[in-house]
Amino acid sequence: MTIEFVKYHGLGNDFILVDNRHGSEPCITPEQAVKWCDRHFGVGADGVILALPGQDGTDYTMRIFNSDGSEPEMCGNGIRCMAKFVANLDGYTQTVYRIHTLAGVITPELTADGQVRVDMGLPRLLAADIPTTLAAPDQKVINQPLEVAGQSWSVTCVSMGNPHCITFVEDAAAIPLEAIGPQFEHHAVFPQRTNAEFIQVVRANYLKMRVWERGAGITLACGTGACAALVAGVLNDLCERRATVELPGGCLEIEWADDQRLYMTGPATQVFGGAAEAI
Ligand code: ZDP
């Protein structure tokens, strides 16, 4: 069977988007998503995103598969791409969408300058919610030691629906991400695995970040990770509640607002459309 798709990216974090409005289940399997994401034998992407009908009064449901076929709860760059994709399907009849995700209702808004501003909801900080066994279930993990690759790292854990383990470093460029990323991802203290972010505080309102993503490896950007990094920075007194987060693929504006919700603003770009075999 051939399925049509549109390829998008948010700061180089790229996704294959599929119109799945006419079914309540994903029209491709995790195994097909793995094949489509392959950059040599497939379309090439960090993940596949399916736009399904809304639930509980929302406009749409977003399901996403990582390039390894696992299904994350949320995806920050992906939801900006999803907002543009569904606006295009709908003929641009609305600018704000309520999207059902496994991390709750997320609300992207298309802004006048062509970017997407997303209400990413509340960060979750308790160890049970990350989840991690690094602290008692009802405790937060802020600046705690974690042994990885024979070295002690000081980590802070934040869930944006999906798990993030954040480490502040002097020089993000010097971190051997390829080597240590998998060891963070699969560390025994993270039962659902984790995304791992390494953050350099350039100024109190400017962070530089590199990310190793759960299920996808090194990517050029991670929206949920940028939100988690800002929260971790505030909790460690290292940054302001509003900052620019620079990723290898470009910059996101992140704000932890007075209502305690995270707001992320950044681009989403359509690249090309096509059709691929899903077998
Ligand atoms: O949590 C995970 O398994 C991530 N790989 C999901 C994807 C996160 C993403 N990069 C983002 O921008 O939040 C899409």
Question: What pattern of helices and strands is seen along the backbone?
Answer: EEHEEHEEEEEEHEEEHEEEE
Considering the protein shown, what is the CATH homologous superfamily of the largest domain? Diaminopimelate Epimerase, Chain A, domain 1
Helicity, as a percent range? 10-25%
CATH level 1 class label of the largest domain: Alpha Beta
- Per DSSP, the total helix count is 4
Major beta-sheet overview: 17 strands, mixed
The termini sit apart by 7 Å
Task: Provide the number of structural domains.
Answer: 2
Based on CA inertia axes, which overall geometry fits?
A: globular
Poorly predicted runs are: none
Strands, count: 17
Mean pLDDT: 97
The CATH architecture name of the largest domain reads: Roll
CATH topology-level name of the largest domain: Diaminopimelate Epimerase, Chain A, domain 1
| Integer-rounded radius of gyration | 18 Å
**Alpha-beta classification:** alpha+beta
Ligand list: (2S,6S)-2,6-diamino-2-methylheptanedioic acid
Please indicate the percent range of residues in DSSP E strands (runs of 2 or more): 35-45%
Describe the structure in your own words.
With 279 residues, the protein is an alpha+beta fold. It folds into 2 domains: 126 residues, Diaminopimelate Epimerase, Chain A, domain 1; 134 residues, Diaminopimelate Epimerase, Chain A, domain 1. The chain contains 4 helices and 17 strands. Strand 1 and strand 2 form a beta hairpin. The protein is globular, with a radius of gyration of 18 Å. The mean pLDDT is 97. The site of (2S,6S)-2,6-diamino-2-methylheptanedioic acid has 17 residues, from helix 2 and helix 4.
